[in-house]
Amino acid sequence: MATGTDPAGDASTSSNDGATLEKVMKSNALKVILLGDAAAGKSKLIERFLLEGYVPHRLSTYAVTIYNHVWKKADGDEVPVVFWDTAGQEKFNKLHPSYYYQAHACILVFDVTRKLTYKNLDRWYKELQEYCEGIPTFVVANKIDIDYKVTSKSFNFATKRNLPFFFVSASDGTNVVKVFNQVLEAALERKENPPDDYYSQVMDLLQEGELSGKETVQV
Ligand SMILES: Nc1nc2c(ncn2[C@@H]2O[C@H](COP(=O)(O)OP(=O)(O)OP(=O)(O)O)[C@@H](O)[C@H]2O)c(=O)[nH]1
Ligand SMILES: [Mg+2]
């Protein structure tokens, strides 16, 4: 199994205040979201990729934390990226539409030591599809460092839906850089070839201010 603990590049900044959120909503950066149950390891995976670090300490994400990052591509180009480290706790369910809004790729995380986090992938994925149909989605089985034997098991969720799947560990870095790099490539591809669906068109119009409060949209 390949391991990846290379640094992701420049140090990135994180924030979750309202002003940053507004700025990020309007930015032209790639938007990558991490989804999955509470304590699956979303925050730790981002920490591992962006900060090349891991502190085995649990502080559940409150609502969302946004990380600004500059992705240096192999060809030398620099692409601004925002990572949305979302909160898995149910009390934040009402925020989910903002997570999905204009996202270009998703990392769907479960914890190999807790079956329920695997079972719930279906719920996360269905909701994601409602808002971002066809968005590139990478499924990652996290915490394999706890017992590497788990990598011989098969987890069919991803194969059934034809999604890329990786065993990862935020703790020791296994496959983390590899997954993130593939996700960024897929996000860029999605941004350059956006879907032509109804929901995205309406959202784009709203963003441009072309729909006032009184207007109705004909379906
Ligand atoms: N052994 C091990 N523990 C991990 C790994 N990734 C995360 N953890 C631990 O799992 C706990 C939860 O990790 P977080 O990254 O905070 O989980 P989260 O998905 O962001 O959770 P929410 O913010 O509540 O949605 C922490 O105590 C981490 O140290 C891993 O790869 N291996
Ligand atoms: Mg978190």
Automatic annotation (TrEMBL):
What GO MF annotations does this protein's record show?
GTP binding; GTPase activity
* InterPro entries tied to this protein: P-loop_NTPase, Small_GTP-bd, Small_GTPase
Mention any Pfam family matching this sequence: Ras
Q: What are the record keywords, sorted?
A: Nucleotide-binding
Q: Which NCBIfam families does this one have?
A: small_GTP
Q: What is this protein called?
A: Small rab-like GTPase
- Its source organism is Chloropicon primus
Tell me the lineage of the source organism.
Eukaryota, Viridiplantae, Chlorophyta, Chloropicophyceae, Chloropicales
